[in-house]
Amino acid sequence: MAGYRADEEYDYLFKLVLIGDSGVGKSNLLSRFTKNEFNLESKSTIGVEFATKTTKVEGKVVKAQIWDTAGQERYRAITSAYYRGAVGALLIYDVTRHATFENAARWLRELRGHTDPNIVVMLIGNKCDLRHLVAVKTEEAKAFAERESLYFMETSALDATNVENAFTEVLTQIHKIVSKRSVDGGGESADLPGKGETINVKEDGSVLKRMGCCSN
Amino acid sequence: MSRKRTENGSESGPATSHVPVDRFGFLKQEHANSPERFSKSKTTSSTDHDREERKVRKWRKMIGVGGSDWKHYVRRKPNVVRRRIRKGIPDCLRGLVWQLISGSRDLLLMNPGVYEQLVIYETSASELDIIRDISRTFPSHVFFQKRHGPGQRSLYNVLKAYSVYDRDVGYVQGMGFIAGLLLLYMSEEDAFWLLVALLKGAVHAPMEGLYHAGLPLVQQYLFQLESLVKELIPKLGEHFTQEMINPSMYASQWFITVFSYSFPFPLALRIWDVFLSEVKLPFEKLIHALKTFPEDAMNPDTLLPLAYSIKVSKRLEELTLEYQKTNAKPVQP
After folding, report:
1. Which domain of life is it from (chain A)?
2. CA dihedral for B240, B244, B245, B246, sign (positive or negative)
3. Does position B147 have pLDDT exceeding 70, yes or no?
């Protein structure tokens, strides 16, 4: 953590996780959002990686801390620890592989088993640039998202379609919940989530308020 | 058996002819794994060259023709062997020596035809998973770069064969980087048996726990690393605790791929030299790297000698027992 500055200024720190089957494009969505890069020849993710990006959401400076997890089933032993404290999740499937969409239900169960019920989840159909290979119809995914109360978007990390939009939408929805909580006057601490602590979006610690600038 | 490698990137690589590669075959424009920053000898002087020649001659003598003298030498002078391995196995002999010290050469000789059988006649439930990762394994290395080229085909064969050989483990992401590293130094069949020697345990404890359901051995190593950091570098341990950094965040991929995934390539090779012969993961090196980071932490010639001065073996054994006691399902012996 060379050069880390504790006094870096932001109003909120939101922790997000990227989940979904192996090879759906999680790492490239992350690098497109945080560095505006796409790599056709990237390595498989082993274990976990993370990146951050600071952005403005409804006038507030929000730092997104995004955890990118390996998709293979066997890794669940390590990756599920990263769900803890997450206030947002992007559940990603590959629009050209129907099996990755069918697995979304399982990923969702897994996620909900480890996180607060108020977590903001967006279903993402990635690789939508491959139009001639689409195997998952938009309507089908939309219906699933509605049934499960998820936000939904189709993206392409390759040509950058909707990537910024998807992350911004998730961050905005989280911010809405948090600021509503502030107005309601719910007590919040300014600590990072501790180990083993259950995070509640309503009274959480992981939705970090900084500098006291927006507490009232 | 061992493939010809390019020297200093001036000659052509085996797969593509005019792409500049470093002396290990990684594309030059790629920074990940590139040894450029860490290799001291950018311009090899003639004295360096002579020293290298002498070293190779000593090694050849020690090994004998095709490894015939090796066992004898190890028995007679274990300390000399150990010292020489710690200084780094000459690159041109690395593949052969790795097979000798891991015990994989014996496995190969005892199982004629088995590898071919596994590759040609058996089918694996993991085939699609393997294929999905093939082009995502060392994508910046000339040998693995070409789609369906010899590198990718060998990698597929070795991984598929292993997934059939041990259906409990099957294929787990990360194994590809180990197989890939081996394939840069030996033939497919040799790489397969070294993988078997490593995971099933030929001359040392099996490491298949890295890939079993629940990744028990990875969890054990993470626990040990965390404990050692707290004990040996208390200030850093404290800082990690405060920032809620736990070792699974930075070290899972080190253990799952035995350092072949993201370490600078020359360092990964030197770690493998010692790891295969001394039969343990280089916790000393990790501790040392964390202590000195970032200056010089990734230069093998600086890191390794200093790391040997840190003694952790005894404490590691204690921590292994402690971990196994506190976990209901112990790591398979």
Report:
1. Eukaryota
2. positive
3. yes
User: Where does residue B155 rank: exposed (0-12), middle (13-18), buried (19+ CB within 10 A)?
Assistant: buried
Strand-pairing partners, residue A49, are A68
Q: Is A72 annotated as a binding residue?
A: yes
More confident residue, B37 or B290: B290
User: What is the set of domains in chain B, with CATH numbers?
Assistant: 53-87 (no CATH), 105-203 (1.10.8.270), 216-327 (1.10.472.80)
**How distant, in Å, are the alpha carbons of B70, B83, B85, B127, B321 from that of B74?**
6, 12, 12, 40, 30
**Phi/psi at A18 (5° precision):** -105, 125
As a residue count, chain B comes to 333
**pLDDT tens digits, one per residue of B212-256:** 999 999 999 999 999 999 998 899 999 999 988 889 988 999 999
Residues 27-46 of A with CB under 8 A from B: 41-46
Q: What is the average per-residue pLDDT within A119-140?
A: 97
Contact A126, A161 (CB under 8 A): no
Tokens 């345990």 label which residue?
B201
Complex ipTM: 0.81
Q: CA B288 to CA A38: how far, in whole Å?
A: 34
The angle formed by the CA atoms of residues B322, B326 and B327, to the nearest 5 degrees, is 115
Is A151 in CB contact (< 8 Å) with chain B? no
Confidence (pLDDT) at A167: 98
A179 min Cα distance to partner chain B (Å): 25
What's the pLDDT at B10?
39
Angstroms from A146 CA to nearest CA on chain B: 31
The amino acid at A45: T
Our measurement of the distance from residue A49's CA atom to the centroid of its chain's CA atoms, rounded to an integer in Å, reads 13
Superfamily of domain A12-182: P-loop containing nucleotide triphosphate hydrolases (3.40.50.300)
The closest alpha carbon to A20, from A143, A126, A147, belongs to A126
* Interface contact B137-A22, CB threshold 8 A: no
Tokens of A44: 């498989």
B110: left (phi over 0), alpha (psi -120 to 50) or beta: alpha
Among candidates A1, A22, A193 on the partner chain, residue whose Cβ is nearest the Cβ of B132:
A22
Confirm or deny that A127 is annotated as ligand binding.
yes
Among B249, B254, B261, the strongest candidate for a mutation testing the A interface, having the largest count of A CBs within 10 A, is B249
Contacts with B, A 185-214, CB within 8 Å: 192-195
Digit-coded pLDDT (tens) for B81-93: 999 999 999 999 9
